[in-house]
Specification:
With 748 residues, this protein is mostly beta strands. It folds into two domains: 103 residues, Immunoglobulin-like, CATH 2.60.40; 628 residues, Beta Barrel (Maltoporin, Chain A). It has seven helices and 50 strands. The radius of gyration is 27 Å and the shape is globular.
């Protein structure tokens, strides 16, 4: 706690130290003229001066130290018409100038660019960061409909556990090591249909920022990566909408102006449940299943300096399967997220911009099953109530200071029972206080340095932790840039997952009996951008892990437990290292990327594998992906191909018989070999798709046909041993065959 207070005092001193200038200041917002959306990282430059800046995440900018006189000003954003004008100022003038840019098609060698990269500055300065646009997601083939998490699995350094898993395994880390945010609110299990779809409505997405490692100080709480998704704010100019119909679900988004603001409502729901009900009436035994999600956002300007944003998200999945009603044999599962947030954004002065946030996020998962009148249940609930404040201070043309404070109150509950008898129960209500400071410093016109420090106080065990962060970026020559980044990270929650599919996973708190997980990360990269058309990057990474935990199945099954140290095997360590290559073609009729990862991941636990290092299931030596989209008039063809080393698994070394002392019956059992010492066959898959734009009742529409696993490669999922019959060969369970889907997207 003391260290957090000290950090806050340092932040105050930093602000005082940077108070300066008798020259003029220009500030304001940069927005899209068509819908009023803020444009982050737009470029503001004086043509006759060496002054300029970029707008922040909310589209706000400030330029200080403008000399008196008349100056030419340009505001630009890739994919938009540049705004040019002249301003005249005297000393100490504070000029407010809001700029609206009009989108346009920019031709390069007779090829058209219709969208912009909204994170040019972040891509230039920070290593291991990727930005994707909603349009890119729409064009990539997938199962059913465009999906954010499945698209991210095509990037180098990112893996999936199976065909039906949307979990992100980033650079040797599990899915719990990636923090996933929607409008700055954490979602603890963003999956529908056991991983077939994510909870992110593709129509509502505005910006996607994905840090694969060494992420900056403004984020915290996870050992590996950060996915920051921002939904649209709503159309300030007119009422409009879009939606889609697929074989699985239907979705609809509407948006429009509100007095001095905007609103947005988006919903999606599967219609599988009435179809499955009709099948059951024919006598076929199939489960009952449905999912839905709902997004609401209201954005209103209270004044030129104040903006209020309210947003909410609800999502649920439910599966009911009565295997034998007479014998009380069933399987039921319910999981979902809900989140409500309010954000006040204020321009305190031309150079000081603040955001104040309050949100509530909840995740719950309940599994109930019964076999021959023996009920089994698992329950998990995570509640997160958070208050936060973030300040952006445009100290000078070379320094942008970012700082923040966040106070979170959690409520965690994880419990199970067997035959109505409690097996274990973990309940904690910890408090987490975090503060950070970060300086984005342009040392020279060719060199950028980002220094950050994050401090956290966790009430479980009264732990105070400091996390230094840095990134360094240097332009070597035109088109070439070298980057280096690193930092220290901690995590207080553990995800218990099947690693086979998403949904029904459990978050388990770590109380005072277990030390939080720790990782040191170091990433070095080299980028080559010969033109606006091509970009190539290579990155080498190393992550050192300590204080890892894994569920102790024997302890959980044998006795009542109420402490983390009794439920987990602790003291784990490990590392992840590798090399990534990424080649991207960003413009023209043919677009896409080629990615390759060479990686090693190892884990070590004193009580597992006799203390010897072993690869986790998701360790892959080689991982490659190729995506391509080709536009020809009203048609767009797309394809993606992935290849990866087979997943690790634990084979049986031998079989033996063990006599049950209660029944006297001999049971056949398999003796496991060394942990994950076997490998499944290599994984590879081709997905294809075609789209055609058309007019529907005078509005734009699009029909698409997609084929998942086009050549029906039956990739291996896991190995199953039959302990009832020792003569039976091990059975390899396969993943999905070819899956064709089609649908219609429309707008109005």
């Amino acid at each position: 706690m003391q260290r957090s207070v000290v950090l806050l005092r340092l932040l105050f001193l930093v602000f005082i130290a940077y108070q300066e200038t008798n020259a003029a200041t220009l500030s304001g917002f940069v927005r899209d003229r068509e819908d009023g959306e803020n444009l982050p990282n737009a470029t503001i430059a004086f043509n006759d001066l060496t002054l300029g800046t970029l707008s922040n995440a909310d589209g706000y900018y400030a330029v200080q130290n403008i000399p008196a006189g008349r100056h030419a000003l340009t505001v630009s954003y890739v994919g938009y018409q540049a705004w040019r004008d002249t301003i005249e100022c005297d000393e100490e003038d504070q000029i407010r100038l809001d700029v609206e840019l009009r989108s346009e098609s920019i031709r390069i060698e007779e090829e058209t660019i219709v969208t912009a990269d909204r994170l040019q500055d972040e891509l230039r300065q920070q290593v291991s960061v990727t930005s994707l646009q909603a349009k890119t997601l729409e064009r990539l083939p997938s199962v059913g409909e465009p999906d954010l998490l499945r698209s991210l699995q095509l990037l180098p350094g990112v893996q999936s556990a199976s065909d039906i898993s949307s979990g992100l395994y980033v650079r040797g880390g599990g899915p719990d090591q990636t923090r996933i945010l929607l409008d700055q609110v954490p979602l603890y299990n963003p999956a529908h249909a056991f991983g077939f779809f994510s909870t992110f409505n593709p129509d509502a997405i505005k910006d996607i920022t994905f840090y694969k490692g060494a992420y900056p100080a403004q984020y915290g709480g996870n050992l590996g990566a950060v996915l920051d998704v921002q939904n649209k704010e709503g159309n300030r100019r007119r009422v409009s909408g879009r939606g889609g119909i697929s074989l699985i679900s239907g979705r609809l988004l509407t948006e429009g102006p509100l007095e001095n603001g905007s609103w947005l409502v988006a919903g999606r729901r599967t219609y599988l449940d009435p179809v499955l009900a009709a099948v059951r009436r024919t006598g076929v035994d199939v489960p009952d299943y449905y999912f839905y999600d709902f997004n609401v956002k209201v954005n209103r300007s209270l004044s030129d300096s104040d903006t209020m944003v309210l947003s909410a998200y609800w999502g649920r999945d439910r599966l009911d399967f009565a295997l034998d009603p007479d014998a009380e044999t069933y399987f039921n599962i319910l999981w979902g997220n809900r989140a409500v947030s309010g954000r006040w954004k204020r321009v305190f002065s031309p150079t000081l911009f603040g955001r104040f946030t309050a949100f509530f996020s909840e995740y719950e998962s309940d599994i109930a099953l019964s076999f021959f009148e023996t009920p089994i249940s698992f329950g998990n609930q995570v509640r997160d109530l958070t208050f936060g404040a973030d300040i952006d201070y445009f100290a000078s043309a070379r320094h942008t200071i970012k700082s923040g404070l966040q106070l979170s109150r959690y409520a965690f509950d994880f419990a199970s029972s067997f035959n109505r008898q409690s097996q274990f129960s973990l309940e904690t209500n910890p408090l987490l206080l975090s503060a950070y400071a970060q300086d984005d410093w342009q040392i020279t016109p060719l060199t950028d340095l980002r220094l950050g420090l994050r401090s956290s106080f966790f009430s479980e065990g009264n732990r105070t932790l400091l996390e230094p962060r840095f990134s360094l970026s240097r332009t070597l020559q035109p088109g070439w840039r070298a980057k280096l980044a690193g930092g220290l990270y901690h995590q207080y929650l553990q995800l218990v997952t099947s690693e086979g599919f998403s949904g029904g996973d459990f978050w388990v708190p770590l109380d005072e009996s277990v030390t939080p997980g720790r990782s040191w990360q170091l990433v070095a990269g080299l980028e080559w951008e010969p033109s606006q058309r091509y970009r190539m990057s290579t990155e080498a990474y190393y992550t050192d892990l300590d204080n890892l935990v894994v569920l102790d199945n024997d302890s959980v099954a044998d006795s009542d437990q109420t402490r983390s140290e009794n439920v987990f095997k602790t003291g784990g360590g490990g590392y992840a290292t590798g090399l990534e290559v990424f080649l991207e073609k960003r413009t023209g009729k043919l677009r896409g990327w080629l990615g390759y990862t060479l990686g090693w991941t190892r884990r070590t636990f004193p009580e597992i594998n006799e203390g010897r290092a072993f690869p986790p299931k998701y360790d892959r030596r080689h991982d490659a992906s190729l995506t391509a989209t080709y536009s020809l008039g009203k048609w767009i063809a797309s394809a993606s191909f992935v290849y990866g080393t087979g997943q690790a698994f634990t084979p049986a070394a031998a079989r033996y018989q063990l006599r049950d002392p209660a029944t006297g019956i001999f049971e056949d059992r398999a003796l496991p070999a060394a942990r994950n010492s076997g490998r499944l066959l290599p994984y590879h898959r081709l997905d294809t798709g075609v789209r055609r734009s058309l007019s529907l009742w005078g509005n734009d529409a699009e029909f698409y046909l997609q084929v998942f696993n086009a050549y029906s490669r039956r990739n291996e999922w896991f190995v199953q041993y039959d302990t009832e019959d020792p003569a039976t060969e091990p059975e390899v369970i396969k993943m999905l065959p070819v899956v064709p889907t089609f649908g219609l997207n429309f707008s109005f």
